[in-house]
Design goal:
- With 494 residues, the protein is an alpha/beta fold.
- The protein has 14 helices and 33 strands.
- It has three domains: 175 residues, FAD/NAD(P)-binding domain (3-Layer(bba) Sandwich), CATH 3.50.50; 108 residues, FAD/NAD(P)-binding domain (3-Layer(bba) Sandwich); 184 residues, Metallo-beta-lactamase, Chain A (4-Layer Sandwich).
- 24% of the residues lie in helices and 26% in strands.
- The strands form nine sheets. A six-stranded mixed sheet has the order 26-27-28-29-32-33.
- Strand 7 and strand 8 form a beta hairpin.
- It is elongated, with a radius of gyration of 30 Å.
- The model has no long low-confidence stretch (mean pLDDT 92).
- Bound molecules: flavin-adenine dinucleotide.
- Flavin-adenine dinucleotide binds next to helix 1, strand 3 and helix 6.
Amino acid sequence: MTDNTKTGYDVIIVGAGPAGLCAAMYAGRGMLKAVTIERGAPGGELLNTDLIEDYIGFESVKGWELAQKMAEHAKTFGAEIVTDTVEKVRKADDGWFDVATARGKTYRAPAVILTAGGTPVKLGVPGEKEYAGKGVSYCAVCDGAFFKGEVLAVVGGGDAAVEEADYLTRYATKVYIVHRRDQLRASRILQERAFANPKIEMIWNKQVVEIKGTDRGIHHLELADTATGERSSLLVGGVFIFIGFKPNTDLVEGHPKHDAGGYFITDERMMTSIPGLFAAGDVRSQLTRQITTAVGDATTAAIAVEKYLVIDPGEEAGLIAHKLQAERVTPVGVWLTHAHIDHVLGVPRLKADTGAPIHLHPADRMLYDHVPEQALAFGMRAEPLPAPDRELVHGEMLRVGGLAFRVRHAPGHSPGSVVFEGEGVAFGGDVLFQGSIGRTDLPGGDVDTLLKSIERELLTLPDSTIVYSGHGPETTVGRERRANPFLTGAYRLG
Ligand SMILES: Cc1cc2nc3c(=O)[nH]c(=O)nc-3n(C[C@H](O)[C@H](O)[C@H](O)COP(=O)(O)OP(=O)(O)OC[C@H]3O[C@@H](n4cnc5c(N)ncnc54)[C@H](O)[C@@H]3O)c2cc1C
């Protein structure tokens, strides 16, 4: 891991449009540590929209103003917004996501919410690239004012084309809507508005085949009749292209399920077919794409981001899997306190069901790799386990939702036994029990090592720390300090 690797996040949000900002706000409220990576100014398409009149609660609001309010609201709940361009989102072998950026950073987290919106679809005709920004535009609100007194063309037949044509009549003397069919796809109300606008003229059954101009800008469009192929010219000073959006889903490696348009298909939690990868807003396959739907998706995604983990799945893997399914959650990881068979038997089932990364201390790898042999010693059969994804390191902090746990290496019961300690509790595996300690007669066990581990890793914790043991009832550090015969020295007296 280099200085350019950023860790410690529960979730990475890609894009700070309405969906990303809303996800950041909910993540903050949910005590998740989130980073939102945005390539431009926060606000997304709101910044390309003049007036918004259909965002409930605001009869009329400027796009930039709503963007600013959303960003401020998200920051109130601690949103960290980084300016950078995400180049790749990849699920690594350890089950976490690597989010690589143009500035050479790699952000790591167990979950990603993709809220990267879309990019306008290009016509792909000669002259389009050449005159981009010099008469060819994909954003009426951004560029309309540059075309005061001009004759313009809008290409397309959907909501965006018709709405923007109407908007452009504020500046232009005339706006042609060039459409390759003989009827519009736009909603009826928008169509009626366009047909009633004396500055708008429809040009049916024509497609643009070339954009022609001079070094001063666009001069005319070359059109072809979609039925006869007959060519004609349309004199215009600018052309606005609204023939669709391509969702920014190419960033993701691994081909999650998507529809014909490339929009990611999600379940009702907004999770894509890659566990832990969520999609919200304009990147998601759905009936309509509005600010309200974007923030609705984002709310669900941020709430659904996993805050669950499984510790030591033993024989009861079926029960755990059933519970996870009933709750519709995927754990951020499977943490193993050690590799004795009764703590790891459920690993294959959970790995297969959830793909959650397996965390194990390397000193127990030998035991882990010999689970079938461990099983035979108890007259049982067990399949080999899937390789662990992450090695636990003494002292490292692991996070789940808003909670953080320190890994404490506590050998003695087994060489790689660990305790997960934080938030006033300790998941102690078989290190310490109520009134007892872990057995030390199995391979790699040693009673003196275990007692030293307990002294160092558990008895240094506050008395109030609740200890959840691998077997038997919970206890507290204080209770064991006072009454556990192995810790008071009573057991040595016989
Ligand atoms: C001209 C126009 C007018 C509209 N008018 C309305 C309206 O009146 N009412 C309404 O409800 N909806 C309207 N919409 C639709 C609405 O704006 C969108 O549905 C909404 O913005 C979607 O939000 P989003 O967060 O999913 O995506 P976006 O708003 O597109 O935000 C995506 C964000 O991700 C960032 N991003 C993309 N790729 C990367 C990357 N690789 N790295 C980092 N950041 C990245 C982008 O810069 C952007 O900020 C309009 C859309 C347009 C184009």
